[in-house]
Give the backbone structure.
Amino acid sequence: MSFNSDRRKALKKFALFWASSPLLQGQFGPREGHQRVPSLDEIANVLEFEPVARAKMKQIDYDYVAGAVEGEYSLKRNRRAFDWVSITPRGMTHVESIDTSVVLLGQRMEYPLLVDPSSGHERLHPGGEPETRRGASAAETPMVVSNQAGFPIDQIAKAAKGPIWQQLYIHRNREAARERVVRATDAGCGAICLTVDAQYSSLRERLRHDRHLTMRSKNTLPNRRSRRRRGASTTNRRQKTVYGTRPESPDETWEFFETLRSWTDLPLLAKGLLTAEDAELAVKYGVEAIVVSNHGARYLEYTPSTIEVLPEIVDAVGGRIPVLIDSGFRRGDDVFKALAIGADAVLVGRPPLWGLGAFGAAGVERVLRMLQAELVLAMAHTGCARISDINRSLIKMSFP
């Protein structure tokens, strides 16, 4: 008995010594030079930027960027649909030199790629949209600035050189929208991109869970100042519907483009089309270009993916105006497939944000350079020396 008692006392003393030992504390302290996420040079593709960005963000900020509407079926379909388009290689073709440049709305671009408008850049990096623009400009890629950007358009425009466009919402406040168009014109923007698929706000369940679990703060929910900045009217702020959803632009029709044309001479784009009928209306009302988009699956659940509806929209437009597309693009191969169907350019939304959150402007540049390189490889293996060489004979579509 005495032996066991002494042994327990000895073990207790050893445990107390070990608990206070710097050797044990060192297991939980920072490791000099150790990094648990890969460096910029170690990342091999665009998708690998997302977990790095996520590791550096608050959960609610990540959910704001990554999440979509309701059960996120459309978010998954946006990606799955690219599996239903295959690329046919072509050998013995002269592709020693590959030209990826295009002219879009009178503006020369080195690649048929643009950064999609998105809000919340400050959630990922304190430099916000100016930091994104610096990265995009370094990658020779135009940026479309969100209507809800955290920085003024003139400050974003001055952050770097290169084409820049302005996205526009109405939010039941035409005067605020008109002022935004004037500021965009004065800042040197090359086009106005009106988003037409946001009649009401949406039910984003990830954010709803976060709001119940997180204290309300300026970093988690839009405050009054941010709402005034993006042009929401007092009526819009007060009018609530079931589950807190609210009207955003429920009273605008295609005739609004006539009003918008009276505000500016810049080219006008309609963003958020998913049908050939709406594409025809866009042409009828003098829109200079359209963006086939389901808003990154953030507004209406069970929409088709954009790549699925692209063929019928391209056929309906018949080359009368440029057709752009976004939602779900993660690879240069995805870009090639859209160009082969007939799109004139592709906008990418979440990937540049992953790059921004992971490594700032350098991450944005690397994301876009990866997409460009993969596009060039797809062109090389299909015998396309120029963007105009890409056509439907190089793909096979098997949509369900």
